[in-house]
Amino acid sequence: KMGDTFNSGATLSLVIISPTQINCYWKGDSTIKIWRDGKEIFVSENHNRHNTEEVSRMTREGILREPAWSPKVLDDTTLTMEPASYYVFNTIIQDNGTVIHDILNMTNSLGHNGMTGNSISEACIKLNKGATYDLVIATDGLWDMVHSQDKIHEFNDEDLPQGDVLIDVEFSTINYKDGLAITNKLPVIRSWPMVP
Fold it and tell me: Of 37, 53, 72, which is closest to residue 148 (Cα–Cα)?
């Protein structure tokens, strides 16, 4: 059964808030962003091809890369694809001769039989008395689709009109791995229906 589950994994974003600080823990590419009084003060560094320490670690460990493509936001209305790479953590050959690569677009994640490494990154943000903090956590793929200068707007109940509120969605996206799964281009899902 190893071939059915060996490439299963997940990312992690965890934030613990105390009266004096915000402790952040992450693994993979689910970014944590924190704003203080409307100004961005913290962005977790993803474990992927943009993280030079992680790329060096992959090279030292002899992890191979395969060419791929990744979305890139050019402006408010233009999305393009840019060259990227997948990291190949394992290869198995099934009984029927099918070759399956355990590939990821990140360099570290939970699962994958521990092949990506076991470290979890962490940071501590000290809280300033009287300041207002906004956080966005566990956003796998969000910052690939949203311009990095875009600001998250916070709305309180008093900002909303009375009665029902209709939200007009300008755009939506699908998680990259879910997109791979529904196009059946890679062996992300091996049997249908997928039951978690």
Answer: 72
